[in-house]
């Protein structure tokens, strides 16, 4: 049972991340998509892994323009049985997919609200007459473009090849360098070679970012590089936060294991979310 | 011209925050609402202040359950002319508003998706038969409940008194202690007494949270308490972040002014968003 669960429908960036992850594990089985499971919502991806319907699940964690995906952070905090077993970083290149003969024949553009926002200047310059409609995913928009030749979807080239839709224009996003990072969650980490990264959540006793300094000090003095820090509310009191930290190294090897042992004695909450190979 | 702009329609929590702010400035003029300006979107609130149609604007910045309001952080970063001149902290107590004779006569419950999510357990226990519908604001739902007695809105007691809607049940949120913090933005800070807080944005040269430690060190060594730290992407490259920091003290007084002077020479970006009286 090697199913990978992702946020569907088929053709989403999460789907592409699932395919990318499987290719890393098993390069020779590139084309079999029947073992990928599309879930309608993120909690469903987590449930599929928990209930053993999938060996791994794909969760978007941050985008270089939009920032953190808070639901993913909140979900992982609640699920003690799961761990992060890998990461996938995807470039987000938006394309205009349509069966229209050319751009002038496009009357409507559909996509996910974030994709529409990321292509706003392009749409205003090239398709000022088009009716813009927000739908729940880029893949849903692609599915609709299959039915109506006057409609274009903003979606990935991955969606174009999956839905066999012509690409009228590519790289139409206003900001270059747009990337999304996904966590792969599961019950057991695959044996991939390093370098490694560790993700953890920590709450300081006084629950003030002032004490964050003493936590970061331990990492700095051990020479461990932090690659990301993200605060989330404890959901108990305004002004109380948890910190999601990504750092270099394995949680079971020095110097990180020593830093973590020291932190454990001084913090209210310390949870290792996983140690995994860099994406 | 003393207009205060807020995210409407009338009856939202932002509206209540605007009323709360005016009451702090001018306690005797409590009931005059004609100088409050409802804007349909957050960028409109910022524009109203920039274009001198309002002297102040109300922007939600964080909620104790949902976390940061990213759009507010991103908007403030772009608007160099505005500063934070105050803060308002509101308890968020959701109520069930309806003209129905009792709860059993309610067929539909409408509200903002976050309010619905925050009352999910209550709705499942008390109104399992009701059709749930998400709309763009709690106030829009209250307006609809005025028209249809089989419909209940989840909104504030403030909205109840504004729309003259009966309160069928109050404090129905699943988590207690739910609060939202708002920033008041304007061109000039009013003369309120302290204690004071300062909000700033900083980007470290290496653009790695590892260097965040050296920034926090300056604050810690000067004995300045940080009350909040929030990261946002630079929108240029995955893994590059800006940090929104709230700390105690005034930016023009020691020890904070000395820390800021030191930081200025070592950081790529340092912007003071404002010094204001605690809410």
Automatic annotation (TrEMBL), chains A, B:
Pathway: Amino-acid biosynthesis; L-phenylalanine biosynthesis; phenylpyruvate from prephenate: step 1/1. Residues 3-187 form the Prephenate dehydratase domain. CDD domains: ACT_CM-PDT, PBP2_PDT_1. One of its GO terms (biological process) is L-phenylalanine biosynthetic process. It is an enzyme of class 4 (lyase). The keyword Lyase applies. Its EC number is 4.2.1.51. Residues 200-277 form the ACT domain. It comes from the Bacteria. GO terms for molecular function: prephenate dehydratase activity. InterPro entries: ACT-like_dom_sf, ACT_dom, Preph_deHydtase, Preph_deHydtase_CS. One of its GO terms (cellular component) is cytoplasm. This is Prephenate dehydratase. It comes from Neomoorella humiferrea. The lineage of its organism: Bacteria, Bacillati, Bacillota, Clostridia, Neomoorellales.
